[in-house]
Amino acid sequence: MTLPRPATLRNWCGTGIIALCAACSDATLPADTIYLNGDILTVDDARPVVEAVAVRDGLIVAVGNETDVLELHGESTVIRDLGGRTMAPGFIDGHAHFGGFGAQAVGANLLAAPDGNANTIDDLVREMQQYEDREELDRTGWIYGMGYDNAVLAEGRHPTRDDLDRVSTEIPVMAIHISGHIIAVNSAGLRAIGFSADTEDPAGGVIRRRAGSREPNGVLEELAGIPAMFGVLSPSDIDAQMFFINRGLEIAKSFGQTTVQEGRANAAAHESLARAAMSGAFDIDIVTYIDYASREVITDEWHGEEYRNRYRIGASKSHSTVRLRAGPRGAPRRTCFRPRDRRWATSATPPCRTTTWSFRC
């Protein structure tokens, strides 16, 4: 009997890849694990579905029909019965933020149905009230949650400080928009950040105000809120950092991801990930793109095409925001680039909006 030649899987960006031992000198040695009794997808057009797959030392050594692959069964081989389920190659994430995975796992789930229960602002408040007793509160000092979408909430608006004061008037509370570019905080949160009626909007950010007043309403856009968000989600304590990283790994693996991107990391975030890699924490691959403001890290030994302990710096990431205004005789007109149809558009009123381009070099 001749064992089937291991399939060659093409590396499809965003789809996935299985690591294969294409030419194993010990092809007849027993496998560590054999998976069978399910639809096993290979991402190989010549043989898209097989009955079984054998793995040794973390590499696939054979795929094919069940009878042939079971020839690699030994005394210590573990048989994994898929029970009719589908087995797919690991997914390679094309653009995510691994640092946010752990943060989302630790914080309250503010997603709307079907991924969560925050369909109204009352729901959002309830989810965050339940979070208050969780042990993770001690790691950040904030009650926080991620994933709300004002466009999906029944009220069609962002939660305000008044809404979040119902969660707590003493502990800072932060609700993070699904985009990651807007946060809403309670009154204690505004005090913790240092914002008041006397605070001017920071460059690149907007502090939304109560109607007819300069008093902040709790909604903070872009650079008015992002630094505070990073402060909450990026603990300085090493044990807390590892707690977030390990929870992020759990999230990634639960969705079948074997390579994950960190789409924007500063020097401190890179140091945290490198420390985790050196400790042997990663059992999937992590690729980091360093923020241009921390570009000195690019010369670091971690930068390159080869992984070290399943971690590497892939490139640098830079942002460019385009704001153009034009109009005859000083008429207020707005010109911007619309990514959807890849053209410049000019209008006297929204929805033409400022856009941010991201570059990876």
| Number of alpha- plus pi-helical segments | 9
Radius of gyration: 25 Å
CATH class of the largest domain: Alpha Beta
CATH architecture title of the largest domain = Roll
How many domains, as an integer? 3
Total beta strands: 18
Poorly predicted runs of 5 or more residues? 1-25, 323-361
Largest beta sheet: what is the strand line-up?
7-8-9-10-12-11
Question: Into which percent range does the helicity of residues fall?
Answer: 10-25%
SSE class: alpha/beta
Question: What is the topological layout?
Answer:
Layout (H helix, E strand, L loop, with lengths): L32 E9 L7 E8 L2 E6 L1 H4 L8 E4 L4 E2 L3 E2 L5 H9 L1 E2 L11 H11 L5 H4 L2 E6 L12 H4 L8 E5 L4 E4 L1 H7 L11 E5 L6 E7 L3 H8 L4 H17 L2 E9 L1 H12 L6 E7 L19 E12 L11 E5 L4 E5 L7 E6 L1
Parallel strand pairs: 1-4, 1-5, 6-13, 7-8, 8-9, 13-14, 14-15
Antiparallel strand pairs: 1-2, 2-3, 9-10, 10-12, 11-12, 15-18, 16-17
